[in-house]
Amino acid sequence: MSTRRQLPEAMLFDLDGTLFQTETLLLPAYHATFDELKAKGIYTGETPPEERILGALGMLLEHIWMRVMPDSSPEVHREADQLLIHHQLQGLIEGRGVLYEGVAETLQTLHDKGVRLFVASNGLESYVKEVIAAKGLAPLFENLYSAGEYQTRSKVDLVKMLLETHGIQNAWMVGDRSSDVEAGLRNNLTVVACDYAGFREAGELEGAHIRIGHFTELLDYLA
User: Fold this and answer.
1) Residue 156 domain-assigned?
2) N or C: which end of the chain has fewer CB within 10 A?
3) Domain end residue (candidates: 73, 93, 113)
């Protein structure tokens, strides 16, 4: 039985693995990126396993590439950045990528209840904004915060900036990785852990106040 909590002033959402089924857009772009890196002669060998990048979702981009191809230079990592975002944005134009079931309807319900909605993501600015726009969610969000736009070194810092900028006193942080849990706890927010993406490692969601197995369950915890 869920313990209901007072309606918060705002909710902050991670994007990948929380609102957006990232792999439906990411994996085709990932393979296209490595095909190009090989064609340019700056990467040799097999494309790294998909599990490497899926397991790194939620990290800052520089940390993702260190995990995916640790033996490559920073210059190759930067080139991979550019190629990956290009192929992802092209995929959005072509209609690839889907939201998790119930996301649009649940966000609309929260918006109708007067909850201020924000995105707080470690992704690139163009990626975050284009996903939200392409999936028709932009009118529901007051603002979109990304590490790419604000050059923050951690999600803790990104969330702190968001709260201070918008004068928010009472909010929930909703996400699927340890970085989301940490960002919420260190900013004194109620933390909702999304346990449905499958990208996390054991123990990542420890410390969360609420854990949900489907996005629509968020509404079950509201008084």
Assistant:
1) yes
2) N
3) 93
CA-based radius of gyration for the chain: 17
Q: Where are the alpha helices (DSSP H) in the chain?
A: 23-39, 50-56, 61-68, 74-93, 103-112, 125-134, 147-150, 155-166, 178-186
Q: Is residue 83 part of a domain?
A: yes
| Other C-beta atoms lying within 10 Å of the C-beta of residue 188 | 10
161-193 pLDDT, tens digit per residue, is 999 999 999 999 999 999 999 999 999 999 999
Residue 175 structural domain: 10-21+98-221
Cβ–Cβ < 8 Å for 175, 154: no
- CB 55, CB 67: distance < 8 Å: yes
Domain assignment present for 153 = yes
- The mean pLDDT of 189-212, rounded to a whole number, is 92
pLDDT band at 49 (very low <50, low <70, confident <90, very high): very high
Length of the chain: 223
